[in-house]
């Protein structure tokens, strides 16, 4: 339940601070486009960004990527 609520927060953040959309990158990042400068500080104070998904992650978290396995990922060593 807690995990579901966390993921349901992303659309709200997109609506409240951006243009109502979210973008996912191939590096497994979530982008909230079109955030006005006047709303940026409030967005960064949101608990989801402060506690769980920092815009300034540690080196380990910044470079960590999940892989689906060698059937879909050329760098995987595990069979899927």
From TrEMBL:
Q: Where is the Nitrite/Sulfite reductase ferredoxin-like domain?
A: 15-47
**What GO molecular function annotations does the UniProt record carry, in alphabetical order?**
4 iron, 4 sulfur cluster binding; oxidoreductase activity
What keywords is this UniProt entry annotated with? 4Fe-4S, Heme, Iron, Iron-sulfur, Metal-binding, Oxidoreductase
**Keyword Oxidoreductase attached:** yes
Magnesium is among the record's keywords:
no
Give the family this protein belongs to, as stated in its UniProt record.
Belongs to the nitrite and sulfite reductase 4Fe-4S domain family.
Its name, as the record gives it, is ORF NiR
């Amino acid at each position: 339940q807690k995990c579901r609520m966390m993921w349901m927060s992303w659309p709200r953040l997109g609506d409240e601070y951006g243009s109502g959309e979210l973008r996912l990158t191939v590096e497994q990042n979530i982008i909230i486009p079109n955030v006005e400068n006047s709303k940026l500080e409030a967005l960064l104070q949101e608990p989801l960004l402060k506690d769980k998904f920092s815009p300034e992650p540690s080196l380990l978290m910044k470079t960590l990527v999940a892989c689906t396995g060698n059937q879909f990922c050329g760098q995987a060593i595990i069979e899927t």
